[in-house]
Amino acid sequence: MMSEWIEKFKDYLQQQGYRHMTLVGYIDDIKQFYDFLRRKLGREPKLSDLSPEACREYLAEQAKTYRRSTLMRRLASLRSFQRYLMSNGQLEQPFVPPTRELNQYFEQAQETQAVVCFNSQELLTLWERLLQIETPRAKRDLAIISLFVEWGFPSEWLIRFTLDDLDLDQARIRVTDIAKNEIWFPIKAAVEPLRRYLQIRPRFNAMPDTRGLFLSQLGRSISRQSLWQSLRSWGNVLHLAKPLTPQALRNTAAYRLSRANVPPIVLQLAFGHTNPLSTRFLMRRLHRACENEDVSLVPILHPDNTITMEPGAEERLDEEFLSRLSAMPFPLDGNYGPRNREQEEA
Question: 120-326: what fold?
Fold first, then answer.
């Protein structure tokens, strides 16, 4: 039965170390297709029911309700499932048609939500307005925002960071990629906001033995939902012209780093992508949507409360950093196993 192989695929992704939200997204997309087949057939689907015709019918139905980005994501999930089945000898022929044969469904789908990124002047305004608010939450969230803008790290990483991952003396922060490699990324724009946040972190009433870097008012590591809500509320309070979301801040970092010619492997790792295609897809979208935005500089906060506009931590990438990456036990083409979604969390 198809359901049994969905569970096996889920177990495989867990073994490969996929992030929880990415794994959940994969399985949810595949189960959507499974439910479609069950409605269509009136019984439990089998692997023998997988066919290009069924896939086309499914996408035609989805195109009536969902955006293009959702269709592309679900298509990428199905292709990953397809590769897994074929590698295990369960399929002889692909059931997902080539993308060029599916363009009609993408054209029928709703327009993808507008891509948002902040230009350098908008970032300066954000920094200046937040610095006027002397609350622990404002200091915490400026530190969070500065890390998003520095490297475009996924929200999940910021939630997961601990005090041990931060080395302010060396101006760097440690991330762990899907292959379990530990990578120390240099930081620059985030240094002073993080230093100020650490001074007031005890005011969040950290619970005993809590090592989480960013804390909620309850003294625990901040949750994904709280992170989103807090940033969006600042966008409203500060009367920003654009929605203040993790994705918008990550877009800002991604576009700046790409324009600064940061090597693709560094971009892929910083964004938490398991597949270089995800990074290239994101870059294409950003270069179309943000081409008129000047994002070359970021606000650098100094101890005397002055702000200068300078390049970010990308200028600290050196041959030593890149050579350490090349020595790590992962393929530089990002081929970790099943290819990731067309557009990852961001």
Answer: hpI Integrase; Chain A (1.10.443)
